[in-house]
């Protein structure tokens, strides 16, 4: 039977009874098949699985969608129970961030690239809450989706820099049948906007095709991708990036593993997606903690 803990104290009491190894899947709820695939992976690889449901306020800028972020706890609990999660940790923001909270986890370089150019405080919020959650949950492995590739790289760096004894596992991006990456934010799309969604995946497919044909000039691929996205009247490009997977610095010649990532606005909704070159390469090397 799945148990829900709403306070850190409640969780810690349960934690001491859980068998090792423990897998952990952090989420902001409103769960879809992408989240559930991570839970299945954790259930397969561990003796117990903890899932957190927490809409982390510090990763939203004041102009972003914190107040409107979609929630559906009942459906989340049902899906998690069916997937085999043992404990759900669903804390209150007031407990995670006391009034006088002043400790932050800040990364120097990786967080200033890509999403960081548009959302400058986002990853400070992400790294801080994941750090808090690692201390509370004490997992042996943590599961993150490649959909948020920069987040994976930030957490991987944090685990190594702060010596967390946590193995980072990355789940591949789960997509709708037409190629749109699943996201809680897809629910914001109007029916007409939803039809424009697959343009992100099509532009990534184009990058892969060009690379497979032998194109190594990153700027040419960025340009072709941008042209393709701009043919969709409802889509506005935030960025099209081809970057080194270790530093996230933009590259000129694709002579090493690269992260192709895009952020596109469709109406008021901002969507992100990515692919790796060479196709099929893992985003990060698998390593032991
Ligand atoms: P979120 O609830 O958006 O914070 O996402 C929680 C976790 O689920 C993160 O590690 C995401 O990268 C992952 N995730 C979100 N969407 C997908 C997807 N379509 N496929 C795989 N993982 C995903």
Model description:
The chain has a six-stranded parallel sheet with strand order 1-4-3-2-5-6, sandwiched between helices. Strands 7-8-9 form a three-stranded antiparallel sheet, with helices on one face. Helix 2 (33-45) links the parallel strand 2 (22-27) and strand 3 (48-53). The model has no long low-confidence stretch (mean pLDDT 97). It is globular and about 55 Å long. The chain has two domains: 3-171, Rossmann fold, CATH 3.40.50.620; 184-277, Pantoate--beta-alanine Ligase, Chain: A,domain 2, CATH 3.30.1300. The chain contains ten helices and nine strands. With 289 residues, the chain is of the alpha/beta class. The structure holds adenosine monophosphate (AMP). Residues 27-28, 34-35, 37-38, 144-145, 147-148, 171, 173-174, 181-184 line the site of adenosine monophosphate.
Note the topology.
Layout: E1 3-5, H1 8-15, E2 22-27, H2 33-45, E3 48-53, H3 73-83, E4 87-89, H4 93-96, H5 115-118, H6 122-137, E5 141-145, H7 149-161, E6 167-171, H8 191-196, H9 199-212, H10 218-230, E7 235-244, E8 258-266, E9 269-277
Parallel strand pairs: 1-4, 2-3, 2-5, 3-4, 5-6
Antiparallel strand pairs: 7-8, 8-9
Helix pairs in contact: 6-7, 9-10
The structure holds adenosine monophosphate.
